[in-house]
Structures are given as structure tokens and as C-alpha cells.
Design goal:
By secondary structure, the chain is an alpha+beta fold. Among the domains are: 178 residues, FAD/NAD(P)-binding domain; 71 residues, Rieske Iron-sulfur Protein (3-layer Sandwich). The protein is built from eight helices and 24 strands. Strands 3, 4, 5, 6, 11, 12, 13, 14 and 15 form a nine-stranded mixed sheet that branches. Strands 1, 2, 7, 8, 9, 10, 16 and 17 form an eight-stranded mixed sheet that branches. A four-stranded antiparallel sheet has the order 21-22-23-24, with no helix packed on it. Strand 21 and strand 22 form a beta hairpin. Helix 1 packs parallel to helix 5, helix 2 runs antiparallel to helix 3 and helix 3 crosses helix 7. The longest helix is centred in the first third of the chain and has 24 residues. It is globular and about 60 Å long. The mean pLDDT is 93. It binds flavin-adenine dinucleotide (FAD). The site of flavin-adenine dinucleotide (FAD) has 39 residues, from helix 1, strand 15 and helix 7.
């Protein structure tokens, strides 16, 4: 369970039970979908559908930092995309933080927003040059940035970053939007265009809509756009533990894998959240080992740990999000490169401006059709990673698992069986319905995880995260 899961409130929206016709449909109720609905709340006949519960996707597993100091993104973009785009990206992140502060202030939202210092740390000597480059870029952009040290490592520091509780933020938006047409437990499984409308199906129900906004993190039906080859999935491991003092900072390293830290204070309870061991899902899938390493990196006494979870995000080939129009009246916001707290708000504003026919200075930066060397280079790397993830998934390292996990075949179908502490067998089909990769058992969170495109299934095979649309539960 993530630290934020305890804040998922009991308020729930109904499940859709009949066909409906709307003007605009938003698919996905994470921070992207809900803030888009917030900006479009005065539009006629707008509806949001969420396959599970609002906020229960990637958003509940984030670290919740709001900062412009995002690793070495600016020197990376300047080198691999262009200096102009890098400058624009910085401007966009400043704008995004202001937008979220504006919403919080206007709506008087209590989401424990706190101003903190933010550090960018070079953990290797060889990374110190990267700090110099990032500092030089930020200085030229008039950002107040200082040289400092962090645990004896060279670092950069800015004073005005923020952290917040993303679930408290979403809970307040839910209250504000409670009279809007929102359906939970309603999963869209297909979209077809007919007579100028999109027909979005959810089992045997149809939502007919003029406009559709896809805010479901990993899009489940965009294979024709070669989406899997335009990004890879990065997985990270997080622990939260109780501490005595809120040291009011967040930190991140220049190199990946590195670490990320923040504090969270809710009344008397103070927690530190540490993230480490990030990797592309095509590599290093041993979850239990990775969690152990995180505990070691942050030197956390086992008894102090209050939450332990993993999370994935989409890393695009050129490190810029995908926000904009896919085709007539169809929009998407995704691909945030682990900076979705800022980029979702920005995406929501851009999409709502596009729908209202207003200009937005950042819409061209995140356009889906863009061409640059970084994108082209990573296209080949990602194609190889996809093939590697698929192939590796077919040969799981059996010695990673204890004897309570068995792989077999029944009636020609690949099956995996996990026997729990009470000797109960949990049997699943060992193939992701999305693109047929085999699954990795995550012993700590007790989930079946797809190493290719990040679908997740619970211990008995119920799909808890797309792009898979179906369960893998074994039916005798
Ligand atoms: C380890 C980690 C740490 C991070 N920390 C930070 C941070 O400190 N700061 C920051 O800015 N960003 C951070 N991020 C990134 C950020 O958490 C994500 O980018 C962001 O939460 C994504 O939000 P979302 O709304 O797009 O996706 P989600 O929250 O996943 O929302 C999508 C919703 O769509 C629903 N859905 C899916 N398929 C369907 C369907 N077919 N029909 C209907 N509904 C559907 C899902 O159930 C889900 O609720 C982090 C990411 C990771 C991996």
C-alpha cells in the first residue's frame, strides 16, 4: 500500500448502467482526468468515466513533489531536442506550479501544500559536470539556484519548490465536481468512430460522444499509432517511514538510478518518503530484492516502515510529454516522464484551452507529431527494449521466486500458481491480454506485473491497471 492510499476517501460515484450520449467524454479519473474536468466544468454535457475509483491509479503511488528541478532535464533537452524547447519546458513547469497553486488557493483546498527547498544531488564524481551544465542553464533563465552539498555530495539548491498530498487534492476536486456526470467502475474497452461521433464501449454499454479525452495513463487502444515504440516504462520502489522532524526539503539525483526523497507531515505524523532502484521494466524485475535495497540505501529500521509500494510511469523518447490532439475531436494527455504532478495540470489546461478554442503557449511543445533526433534514436532503443521485455518475460528466472510459485501448462495454456501462507493456491493465466507478454510475480505487493507495458493484476488475476482490458483469472 502506498502512503497516500489511506487518503482515498469513501465518497464514490455510481457505475454507468445505461447507454448515454454526451458532448465530451474524459476517460480516466487520475490527476490528469479530474483536473481536465475541473477546467471544463462549465462545458455542457461533459462526462468522466473511471475504470476503478478516482485517484486509485498511478496518482496514488506518486511522491507528490512539485518542482522545476527535475534531474538534468533542461541540459538533456537542450542537447537532444533544442535549446528553445528546453527553455519552453522550464517556462511550462513554472506555469504548471502556478496553476496548481491557483486552484488550491481559489478553491481553498487543504492538501498540505508546503514550500520546501529542492536539491539536485550528484552522487558520483562523474556527475558533477552535469550539475554545472544544469546550473548554467537555470542561471541564464534567472532561476535563483545555489551551489551546496547534500550528504557530502555536490548539489544544487532552489528554495521555492513544493510538496503536497495528491489524494487530498483529488478528494477536494471530487467535492467541487460532485454534481458533474462522473462514473466509477466503468472501464472503456473500445472506441470507434461512426457518423461523426465516437462510440466508446464499456462491456455492452455505449457512450456516444462528440469529443473524447484520453487521460488513462497508458492508452489501451493506440497500437496503430505505435505508442509502445514511442516510450518505455520506468519502475521505481518506494518506502515511507516515520521520522521525528520535518526537514522541509525534497531531493533528487542527477543520475538514474539514483534516489528521491521528500517529507510529508499530516498533523503530528511526520513521514519521510524514499524512492530508489528505478529501472526500465525490461530489466531487473526482482521486486523483493529491490525493496530490500531501498531499505538499505536509506538505512531504515524495519519497524519504522509504514508503507511500501512500487510505481511506474511512461518515459517518452525525447522526455517531453504527449499532450494534444490525436485526430478530430480526440485528445490525449500522458507520457509525463515521472513529472506528472506538474505536467497533468499543464496538460489539463492545454486540452481545455484547445476544446474552448483558446490559444495556449505550450500546446506546440507537447504536440504528438514532433520529430527530433532524441526521438528517433530512442525509437530504436525502445523497439529493442520491447523485444527484450517480451523475450525475457517468457523465461522468468525461477530462482528469484520461492518454491511457492509454479509455472505450468493446463490444456495448452500457460498457467502460474502462487501458494500463499495459508496454503491457498492462486491460479492465473500467465499471459498479459494486452500484447501477450508473460508476467512477473511481485512478491511484496502480491501482484502480477507485466514487464512490457505495465499492466498489473491482483493475486487472483483481476486487472488493476491497464493497458490490459481483461483479467487473467484462471477459470476451471
Ligand atoms: C515512482 C514515481 C514517483 C513520482 N513522483 C512524482 C513527483 O514527485 N512529482 C511529479 O510531478 N510526478 C511524479 N510522478 C509522476 C506522476 O505520479 C504520474 O505521472 C501521474 O500521477 C499520472 O497521472 P494520470 O492521471 O495521468 O494517471 P493515473 O493516476 O493512472 O490515472 C489514470 C486513470 O485512468 C483509469 N483508467 C485506465 N484505463 C481506463 C479505461 N480503459 N477506462 C476508464 N478508466 C481507465 C485508471 O484506473 C486511472 O485511475 C511519479 C511517478 C512515479 C512512477
Amino acid at each position: 500500500m502506498s502512503l497516500w492510499e489511506q487518503y482515498l476517501d469513501d465518497y464514490s460515484f455510481p457505475k454507468l448502467k445505461q447507454n448515454i450520449q454526451v458532448d465530451t467524454l474524459i476517460i480516466g479519473g487520475g490527476i490528469s482526468g479530474l483536473t481536465t474536468l475541473y477546467y471544463l466544468k462549465n462545458e455542457n454535457n461533459i462526462c468522466l468515466v473511471e475504470s476503478a475509483k478516482i485517484g486509485s491509479g498511478i496518482t496514488k503511488n506518486t511522491t507528490g513533489k512539485l518542482t522545476i528541478l527535475q534531474g538534468i532535464i533542461y541540459s538533456d533537452l537542450a542537447k537532444n531536442v533544442s535549446l528553445t524547447k528546453s527553455k519552453q519546458y522550464l517556462k511550462s513547469q513554472i506555469k504548471a506550479i502556478n496553476l496548481i497553486k491557483e486552484i488550491i488557493k481559489k478553491e481553498k483546498i487543504n492538501c498540505d501544500l508546503e514550500k520546501v527547498a529542492s536539491y539536485l544531488v550528484a552522487i558520483k564524481k562523474s556527475d558533477e559536470k552535469k550539475l554545472v551544465q544544469e546550473k548554467s542553464f537555470l542561471k541564464k533563465a534567472h532561476i535563483n539556484i545555489k551551489d551546496t552539498t547534500f550528504n557530502n555530495n555536490k548539489a544544487l539548491k532552489i528554495s521555492d519548490s513544493y510538496v503536497f498530498n495528491p489524494l487530498k487534492f483529488l478528494n477536494s476536486l471530487k467535492q467541487i465536481l460532485q454534481n458533474k456526470m462522473i462514473y466509477e467502475q466503468t472501464k472503456i474497452d473500445n472506441i470507434i468512430k461512426k457518423d461523426g461521433y465516437y462510440l466508446c464501449t464499456s462491456k455492452d454499454l455505449i457512450i456516444k460522444t462528440k469529443k473524447v479525452i484520453i487521460a488513462c495513463h497508458y492508452p489501451f487502444f493506440l497500437f496503430p499509432l505505435l505508442f509502445p515504440l514511442k516510450n518505455h516504462i520506468e519502475k521505481s520502489y518506494l518506502l515511507a517511514w516515520k521520522v521525528n522532524k520535518n526537514e522541509k526539503y525534497s531531493a533528487i539525483t542527477t543520475s538514474n538510478p539514483g534516489f528521491s526523497i521528500r517529507f510529508y507531515q499530516d498533523g503530528q505524523n511526520i513521514y519521510k518518503i524514499g524512492l530508489a532502484r528505478s529501472h526500465a521494466t525490461a530489466f531487473k524485475e526482482n521486486d523483493a530484492y529491490n525493496f530490500k535495497m531501498v531499505q538499505k540505501i536509506f538505512n531504515i529500521p524495519a519497524n519504522d516502515i509504514v508503507a511500501c509500494w512500487s510505481n511506474v510511469d511512461i518515459i517518452t523518447n525525447d522526455k517531453l510529454p504527449f499532450i494534444g490532439k490525436i485526430k478530430d475531436n480526440m485528445y490525449i494527455l500522458t507520457g509525463y516522464n515521472t513529472w506528472g504532478m506538474t505536467n497533468s495540470i499543464l496538460g489539463a489546461k492545454i486540452i481545455s484551452d484547445l476544446i474552448k478554442g483558446k490559444d495556449n503557449e505550450f500546446s506546440s511543445l507537447f504536440m504528438l507529431k514532433r520529430y527530433n533526433i532524441a526521438k528517433l534514436k530512442s525509437f530504436f532503443v525502445n523497439s529493442l527494449e520491447n523485444i527484450l521485455a517480451f523475450t525475457k518475460s517468457k523465461f522468468p528466472y525461477k530462482n528469484w521466486y520461492q518454491s511457492n510459485l509454479k509455472f505450468t501448462k493446463i490444456n495448452g495454456k500457460k498457467i502460474a500458481i502462487y501458494t500463499d501462507e495459508k496454503e491457498i493456491e492462486h491460479i492465473v493465466y500467465n499471459e498479459c491480454p494486452h500484447l501477450k507478454c508473460s508476467l512477473i510475480f511481485n512478491e511484496i505487493e502480491k501482484t502480477w506485473d507485466c514487464p512490457c507495458h505495465s499492466s498489473r493484476f491482483n493475486i487472483d488475476g483481476k486487472c488493476i491497471k491497464g493497458p490490459s482490458l481483461s483479467d487473467i483469472s484462471y477459470k476451471k
